[in-house]
Amino acid sequence: MEEAQKAGKIRSIGVSNMTPKIWNKFVPNFDVMPAVNQVEFNPYFQQKELRQIMAKNGVALEAWAPLGQGNADLFKEPVITKMAEKYGKDAGQIILRFEHQEGVTVFPKSVHEARIKSNMEIFDFELNSAEMDQMRALDKGKGMHDPDAPGVEEMLSQYDVHAND
């Protein structure tokens, strides 16, 4: 990827699923700092340690599963439902607004036109600092997927990214 960027074939390099452990192992050896790291991020898994590391390096975080992969518990959180009622929004809009205010890049997936429009209707209100703190307090510090799980590094190290070149 670095060679492609140097050759002018790409503008930026993005990575995904780089946890603090993986980041600290590999990124110091990169010639070019990634522009973005796409990782699981939602109110239940806010990636606080990783976000600090990335901020020091000027790297953006892009949320994978910003709505918690449709986790029903997340959408029923009293903190979120109360804010949704206050602002006349749905739970998904409150979640996306929180993430936006946290400086996280979000591209929520949807194939439904109404949901796509709804996901864009997060810019006409703002959560106050107390509400942001309430949202931050939802963090459980653990996601649904663990790129640091035993065996993942070994499995990926066997993968030949140039096999089909």
Task: List the total number of helices.
Answer: 9
List SSEs in N-to-C order.
Answer: HEHEHEHHHEHHH
User: How confident is the prediction overall: mean pLDDT?
Assistant: 90
What percent of residues are in strands?
Answer: 5-15%
Radius of gyration over C-alpha positions, nearest whole angstrom: 18 Å
Instruction: Choose one word for the global shape.
Output: elongated
Task: Quickly give the CATH architecture.
Answer: Alpha-Beta Barrel
Helix/strand class: alpha/beta
Helix content: 40-55%
CATH fold assignment: TIM Barrel
Q: CATH homologous superfamily - what is it?
A: NADP-dependent oxidoreductase domain
Number of domains: 1
Give start-end ranges of low-pLDDT stretches: none
The spatial strand order of the largest sheet comes to: 1-2-3-4
CATH class category: Alpha Beta
**Main sheet?**
4 strands, parallel
Q: Count the strands?
A: 4
How far do the termini sit from each other? 14 Å
Organism: Limosilactobacillus oris PB013-T2-3
Protein name: Oxidoreductase, aldo/keto reductase family protein
Pfam families: Aldo_ket_red (PF00248)
Family: Belongs to the aldo/keto reductase family.
Explained architecture:
The chain is α/β, with parallel strands linked by helices and 165 residues long. It has a single domain (13-140), classed as NADP-dependent oxidoreductase domain (TIM Barrel). 41% of the residues lie in helices and 9% in strands. It contains nine helices and four strands; from the N terminus they run H-E-H-E-H-E-H-H-H-E-H-H-H. The chain has a four-stranded parallel sheet with strand order 1-2-3-4, with helices on one face. The radius of gyration is 18 Å and the shape is elongated. The mean pLDDT is 90. Residues 1-139 form the NADP-dependent oxidoreductase domain.
